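Sample A.
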Amino acid sequence: MKHKKGENVNGWLIINKPAGMGSTLVVNLTRKLLNAKKNGHTGTLDPFAEGVLPIAFGEATKLIPYVMDGDKEYEFVLKFGVSTDTLDLTGNVVAQSSKIPSKDEILAVLPQFIGEIEQTPPMYSALKIAGERAYDLARKGLNPEMPKRIVKIYDLQLIEMMSESEAKFRVKCSKGTYVRTLGADLAQNLGSCGHLTALKRTKCALFDISDTILLENLKNMEYVEERKKLLLPLLTCLCDITVIAVGEEDAAKLRKGQAISPKAYGDIKLGEAAAVFENELVAMVRVEENKISPVRVFNL
């Protein structure tokens, strides 16, 4: 989101989003708090959820796709015996079950959810159907047909039984995974039904919960310059990517959108994304057999 007023602010601010607040509201608030022209988030975190929400400022917004494509980690609380239309505690009850699985029953089915699994996204989601958000269609009383998708679950653990009917889990998963759906599918597999009563994102790509700052702490800082000191460099999200150092001439070509020859830069893996430097970040590029082509050019 770009605004005429404000300063050119570049970098990452990793917010620990509070439950009950929308991601867009966090973007708007942080832009004002840092007096920035432009910022954006790396994918919507459900309003009822909390946790890691990376906010990109200025030139960092060009790197948002690299964060959105990263893996995620969550902790969630699943309540068995009651299902809602939103699959979380904000919705209306649509089904109930007297079946409440035991700890041993839960542990026995968890391996079935590891690896590639098929999911149907919830109706109340930001997914677009024929140009409209699914949650807008659902609120109109329509039942949009949600396309199934394949996601990957790397790990799923039962952390603790919080009560007879509530259990806390930790999941490591690929982009595009709906944890609300995962909880509902898990409950259904156990012969029950269920919905999430809590959801916390603990990791988003390379950003961890330990990198976050509370919005209240940010608001309590008196000066804008003090808040800006919390910004992480653009490259923070690219720590595991190939880096190519170029000279002034090749840097100038890339900044103009022109490709350069890979011959002078050794053995670089073809088809992979890489970051190009000349004192500072110049461009994100695609490495091909006969050329290195700019994909995103930075104006720092």
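Sample B.
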Amino acid sequence: MPNRVVTCRGVSRVYEGDGIPVHALRGVDFELKTGEWVSVAGPSGSGKSTLLHVIGGLDQPTEGTVTVDDVEVTALSEAELSDLRLHKIGFVFQAYNLIPVLSALENVEFIMQLQGVAGGERRQRAIDALDALGLADLADRRPGEMSGGQQQRVAIARAIVTNPVLLLADEPSANLDTATTEELLEVLRRLNRERGVTILTATHDPMVMSYTTRQVNLRDGHVVAP
């Protein structure tokens, strides 16, 4: 694995809103090293989520280059982007994005099913991931039968079960109370310190920022001094 998991050079993203250009990112330069847990902080509309989406290949920059694990994301086709997301990047969204008709175990298994992992191995790895996050007793529950914090931990289990080189967490505490947020952050801290998972978190929550090893501040699409 390279020393730098993510490198952004001159990344800009412009959206057309009712004929008026909206500059979500403006010439962002950014690096994320192996084993770091970095928070991208800033007020709503500062470009935090856009930066994560561009790094994760969910959106394309208008200008600039993005490299993840020595692969230039901005040069990939749609099929290649899908493959990158499937095998190298784990996503955790504030809305959880769990499949409501599947159990916690089936939700965690799902991405491995897309990867073609054999059934027996897939099931065991999903069980191990849920157990590592304290969710073994909830394996058979569907999302609607779980609390927000439990759903978010299932989403994390799904994101890390494939051992991605990068975990992207977009406002992971947005729908959680303080106690549940602290539990979630302890889980992420353990993953970062004990497993060496490289994490990039978009947040405006001071508690989340306090847990990360480094903070990058965005304002109006620019990287600014803390």
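B remarks: The CA atoms of residues 12 and 160 lie 29 Å apart. The longest helix spans residues 178-194.
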